[in-house]
Amino acid sequence: MTVAPPEKPAEAGKPVAKGHPSGDNRFKMLEATMKRHQYQADALIEVLHTAQELFGFLEMDLLLHIAHSLKVPPSRVFGVATFYHFFSLKPQGEHTCVICMGTACYVKGAGNLVAAIERQCNIKAGETTPDGKVSLITARCLGACGIAPAVVLDGQVAGYQTPESLTEIVKGWMS
Ligand code: FES
To answer: What is the pTM of this model?
Structure first.
């Protein structure tokens, strides 16, 4: 029988990036962003951006989770999320393809991924196909640079993408 090593104790006074009881890995990435900003309320817009990039839209539970983590009143979080037009509180297309355009992904060809999906779906980044099937979103660093170029496909992080591998997946969504 193998025994898992004990978890390293957190450094005193430093916030620890935790997962989420749901086990959804995107919460870990969101947590890493909040930790990078030391859970400062001032980072709210930045954190909402990251949340939208990871989840495609900002649902109520997610807003509450952010409010709780940054110790900001939920009313303020809802206010900011509804004030700026670049935040969406509703799901976009049936399928969401988020392509990371952060530095590590960019140098590994993320631009080619965006161009390939724009061509395939006949939309620009930030748009949804007229039939509502596919939304294409670009993000800054998703926190998965080690598997660049990284994308999030319907909430699942996928690394080492090529235009061929990605268009094959999107082809499946569109059929
Ligand atoms: S730059 Fe793409 S995951 Fe970090």
So the answer is: 0.63
